[in-house]
Amino acid sequence: MTAFTGKVVLITGGARGIGAEVARRLRAQGAYLVLIDVDPPPLRELAAELGGDEYVVAVPADVRDFAAIQAAVAQGVERFGGIDIVMANAGIASYGSVLAVDPAAFRRVIDVNLVGCFHTVRAALPSVIERRGYVLIVSSLAAYLAMPGMAAYDATKAGVEHFANALRLEVAHRGVDVGSAHMSWIDTPLVQESFNDLPAVARGLAALPSPIRKTTSVQACGAKFERGIARRARRINVPAWVGMLRWLRPLLQTPLAERASGKTTPAWLPEMDAEVTELGRSFSARTQALGED
Fold first, then answer.
1. 3-state SS track over 151-208
2. How far apart are alpha carbons 213 and 30 in whole angstroms?
3. Distance, CA of 14 to CA of 23 (rounded, Å)
């Protein structure tokens, strides 16, 4: 028996990256899975890898579509009897500064990362309350420390952190625990594609302290998530030092700190915007394709 034996876990953005890694780990610990992703082929492959229909309900759906997420939750409840744990993980990032990003791309990041988080929680919450379960909202280091060129992503990750804080207050008396996860750079397709498309981002990161620019493996991140979900953690920080920035946030937002951290921005940010213009898109090619109707 483990903390996950017989538990039903719903994960959005479950086909790749952190979502897929956590799915593998929790299935190995005896969990049943409801996996939702906008990209059907890798979702089907992962579901087959993890044992198929006996253990996994895999639903291709866009978190921007509330009705589709409701239907996915209903499939999971019908198949496994309910939902114990929700991991609202689906997320994307756009390219370009506020002056350069495509406004439609900015809006899409808000809709996927923030509104999609709400859709996920709203659809699954009745079952989670019934089972006195746990909700994990996947935020980011970006909720604690803003980065130039990432305004849409920063705004959504700060937003979902506060969403988690409000939700925790609303459901604590119902026996439901709520946590938020905050990661630095994780070696996911999202990060890999950004670095490949925009070399200027790597140049901008080079000026930051070593821990902030270091990339953590998906496996190490998944192990931290597994432990945090098992103990129904209020916060999961990956790496652990990320948690320090939560307490340092007021200092990081002072004019003096912002001047120090922004000294290199005038050099690399215009280069990044030029790279975005040359690409002709405000997303990675994969994210761009997945958002096309």
1. HHHHHHHHHHHHHHHHHHHHHHHHCCEEEEEEECCECCHHHHHHHHHCHHHHHHHCCC
2. 35
3. 7
Look at the block and give the residue holding tokens 């935020």: 139
Angle between helix 17-28 and 218-230 (nearest 10): 50
Distances (CA, A) of 170 to 129, 143, 197, 228: 11, 21, 41, 21
In the three-class reduction of DSSP (H, G, I as helix; E, B as strand; rest coil), residue 253 is classed as coil
Domain 8-290 in CATH: superfamily? Answer: NAD(P)-binding Rossmann-like Domain (3.40.50.720)
- Strands 32-37 and 8-12 come out as parallel
Give pLDDT tens digits for 177-229: 999 999 999 999 889 999 899 999 888 877 666 777 788 999 999 999 999 99
Residue tagged 């895999």 (tokens)? 58
DSSP reduced 3-state for 6: coil
H/E segment holding residue 271:
helix 265-279
**Domain locations in the chain as residue ranges:** 8-290
Question: 269 near 97, Cβ under 8 Å?
Answer: yes
Closest CA to 242 of 270, 220, 226: 220
- Which of these is catalytic: 32, 95, 144, 153? 153
With contact defined as beta carbons under 8 Å apart, do 163 and 116 qualify? no
153 is catalytic: yes
At 234-280, the pLDDT tens digits run 999 999 999 999 999 999 889 988 887 778 889 899 999 999 999 99
Distance of CA 246 to the CA centre of its chain: 18
Place of tokens 């719903």: 10
